[in-house]
Each structure stands twice: as C-alpha cells, then as structure tokens.
Amino acid sequence: MRSRAAALTLSIACTIAMATPRARGQSPPATLGINYAALRTSAPSSAVRRQLYSGFAVELTAPIHGRWGFDGEADFLAPSASAWMQETLLGLRYRAAQGRRWAFYLGARPGFLYASGGFGAAFSAVGPSFNFALDLGGTAELRISRQWLWRIQGGDLLIRGSYGFFPANNLQLSTGLAFHF
Fold first, then answer.
1. Which residues contact 21 (CB under 8 A, 6 or more apart)?
2. Measured CA angle at 7 (ends 117, 151), to 5 deg
3. How do residues 71-88 score in pLDDT, each as one tens digit?
C-alpha cells in the first residue's frame, strides 16, 4: 500500500513537472526535496491525548502559470516500530511574496493519510485506517545556490477520522534541502 501510493504520487508529480513549459535560457522550474517532517495531532476527544509523530518527507514542486504552482508531498512518519503512518498530499500553491533569494507560498493540499493499526483510537477504533486529509499552510524557501534551496513548511492538517474531522491545530512542520532542476 505504501509503495503504490508513493509511486502514484511521484508519477503524477513528474508528469506535471515535465509538462510545464519553459522559456529559452531559463533554468528548469521544478524542485525535489527531502525533508524532516513532524506532525502533532490534537485530541478528538478527552480519551485520546495529543501525539507527536516524526519522520521524513519527499516533496516535488513545479510552476503551472504565473504565481500558481503544483505541490506534491509524501510523508512517512513512524513513532514506534509497531506503528507507522503515510500521508500523501497533492495540491496548489500560490507565490504570495518573492525576493531575490527567497519566496513565500500559500497552499492548500488535499490528500490521504494511512495509519497502521498501532495508533489505536487516534485515527480509528480498531485496526488500520485510511483517512482524508487537507493541509492548509505556507512555505518559505531560501535559495542557497543556483541549484539548492532551503525549504521550511508549516500548516494545519485537517484529518477526517472515525470521530469526524479532527479539530484544527494538527500542526505539521517540515524542513530540509531541495534541488532545483
């Protein structure tokens, strides 16, 4: 299940990145990054406490037109050996501000979150769960060199679990290097 979702995410992102038109003499617009990722979930009820999950994320971005771009991300979070979670998000981002070496983007990315059975009541009453997720947030990018940039991303992840939508304040953060190609 994990490998199929990751392969699907990567193939969709590569298709969009390859289809993006490029001006002559301009460097290719896509970026591929590997980030540290952390997700802090809020409690849907008093019986479930807040949790912090960490792992890594692979992110691919490409411009579509003007200030609009595509943003795809796959996160692999594992708080213990018996429990893991995969989150796949695909959506749009809008370049809200840009300087010579930095840019700030706003984004909305719907997707899915798969949690193995070790998470207990946080995502489903029994066994593994496959949940709809919506990430609303922003990204700051700082160009380090012509080919490399540092990316910091944060947002509020809304998760649809067996309790309905988790309340807001599921804080998701990721940071790492991205290669501009």
1. none
2. 90
3. 999 999 887 666 778 889
pLDDT (tens digit per residue) in 75-127: 998 876 667 788 899 999 999 999 989 999 999 999 988 877 655 555 555 55
Give the pLDDT mean for 4-11: 56
Task: For 57-68, give one letter per residue: b (16+ CB within 10 A) or e.
Answer: bbbbbbbeeeee
Q: Please say whether the beta carbons of 102 and 141 come within 8 A.
A: yes
Going by C-alpha positions, the residue among 155, 151, 181 that lies closest to residue 58 is 151
**Helices first, then strands: H and E counts in the chain:** 1, 9
**Cα dist from 103 to 59, 99, 115, whole Å:** 16, 6, 33
Residues paired with 172 in a beta bridge: 39, 155
**12-65 pLDDT, tens digit each:** 555 554 444 444 434 347 899 999 998 887 765 555 566 778 899 999 999 998
Contact 53, 85 (CB under 8 A): yes
Q: What are phi and psi of 4, to 5 degrees?
A: -65, -45
What is the total residue count of the chain?
A: 181
Tell me the chain's radius of gyration from C-alpha atoms.
17
